[in-house]
């Protein structure tokens, strides 16, 4: 495979991976093209600014209201779903969630699972967990299927295989499925369709995510274009939905604006091809549909983010991906550089609560704070503000008690002392003047190498005379007008 | 302590001292931009659905079975799955012997397990009803039940859907209200807005990813 993306094979931190990604012309072209087109589609889908802003505000309020009653709504959801015949499970950790899923499959002696697109199952690394226990778990979203076939991870939450072009997919299908190589996208999709249809038919269990869980009616709502979500939730005898606890909304009507915001922000579509609303398993007299439906509610750090009123806003996220599409950093380094399930701006603000800041110490600072993400977010998460907050949490000393999981990952006593010194210097006129006098006189003595700065820049050298000095002289000459 | 109570306790601690936000849902935001004169609803629905490769015909409520036979003949299909216990299924069944169609009528009258292989691979087309449509987004509303099961609109490569012109609503919110969805939903309610598609390879649009490759809508004008 000559064109294989090298990024995924790299270990090391964000910086190392970014360097490799930035040097990969093919990867950058793939992302640039895709992001440009997604940005345009979104803009075209919101031609009326007033309408868009009104809807974003409403979306934000709906999520904030749901979060302000989250524990009650979760209980209501559970009660309603239970009435409808759906079994609800709770998991604090991904390990617990995997055990629950494995338990359900085991009870049916299942060995084959098909999955609709689910970011939470990626979070759980469910495929690997089940594979180790002899259960085959096949992705059925075309993009996810391609990525899984190549032993990779998704690089975008909506377009998992966006880093690959058609030739790379053609070669992959040829190598793994033994089909003739073709660069006809339609033909490639038909190969996927045939292969996966057999799997849908044979699967013992279907796994899916959830876009919105409606407490009022006990309904799981899923959006998709392909039909694999409907296949996974309708064809096998058992359906397991896995979702984060933040996906619950209060009323059915709440999904009207959220749905519109989601599909327009994500893909620029007025709606997805399918909106699949599941309110229960097959009834006694029905002829199809799963006999069992389960919902696994996963915490995995979400309650930690919830505890902090500011970070709680991360739970507004409806996973549309718009923040990535508009992020200048994401567009250049691609999804794999982040090394985590959720890349891009959204990844930066949710991942620390799941895995701890020490695992992603560079993420909060891998941003120019240009603000594009916050501007497009359909539920108005102030992403740049949250990134700044994470930067602060990231450098807190243990004594200052960082509030985010494993905060203080970048705390350094040396750096703190330097800043203290800088603060004293700038708040004492005498010291400041003394420093200025010295810095201009001994300017030749400034070090040639000052950390990472001089990797790409020449070292700064103070001017001969300070601005103060020059201004004073100027005023003296021109009579202070 | 169970995971359930741990999670709920943590969330309740996080909320300590706060009060729930009021429900200030402003329905105008989801209705006013999406209102159409009755005669424009069909136009709006058509243009959105046709833009995503849906084939649409306006036919009289008497003559639609003929149209169905014509659609099958044009594609040279050998069978059609229908729901004989529904009113439209019955009508189709009565018409079929005189249609001259060579396509065989199949009935979804037994559990999927009894004929899974056939359903997945050998059914060419299906005909289902709808409970209405939404002009704002170009969406059909399907309400599968015992007589017209879920997989009918998913497995066959061609799905033909019947829509009464009078049942097209302006927007999703209006549809929910008129049909009082919050009072009770079927096990699987669906909005369908075109044939199955994907843009997962290079964002190139391809139809017939996993569901129907073709969607044909017959809009029945009330006689
Ligand atoms: S943070 Fe906002 S823009 Fe980003 S994925 Fe979530 S909802 Fe979409």
Structure description:
The complex is a heterodimer of chains A (481) and B (223). Chain A has 481 residues and is of the alpha/beta class. Chain A has three domains: 13-41 and 322-400, no CATH class; 48-300, Rossmann fold (3-Layer(aba) Sandwich); 413-477, no CATH class. Chain A contains 22 helices and ten strands. In chain A, helix 2 (25-45) crosses helix 12 (255-267) and helix 19 packs across helix 20. The N and C termini of chain A lie far apart (71 Å). Chain B is α/β, with parallel strands linked by helices. Chain B has seven helices and twelve strands. In chain B, strand 10 and strand 11 (206-207) form a beta hairpin. The longest helix of chain B has 14 residues, at 38-51. Chain B is globular. Chain B starts with a helix and ends with a strand. At the A-B interface, helix 2, helix 3, helix 4, helix 8 and helix 10 of A face helix 1, helix 6, helix 7, strand 9 and strand 10 of B. Iron/sulfur cluster (SF4) is lined by residues 317-323, 345-346, 376-379, 381 of chain A.
| Fraction of helical residues of chain B | 25-40%
Separate helix tally of chain A: 22
Overall structural class of chain B, as computed from helix and strand content, comes to alpha/beta
Calculate the mean pLDDT score of chain B and round it. Answer: 96
How many domains of chain B?
1
Provide the CATH top-level class of the largest domain in chain A: Alpha Beta
* CATH hierarchy: architecture of chain B: 3-Layer(aba) Sandwich
CATH topology of chain B: Rossmann fold
CATH superfamily of the largest domain in chain A: NagB/RpiA/CoA transferase-like
| CATH 4th-level superfamily of chain B | NagB/RpiA/CoA transferase-like
Q: Cα-atom Rg of chain B, whole angstroms?
A: 21 Å
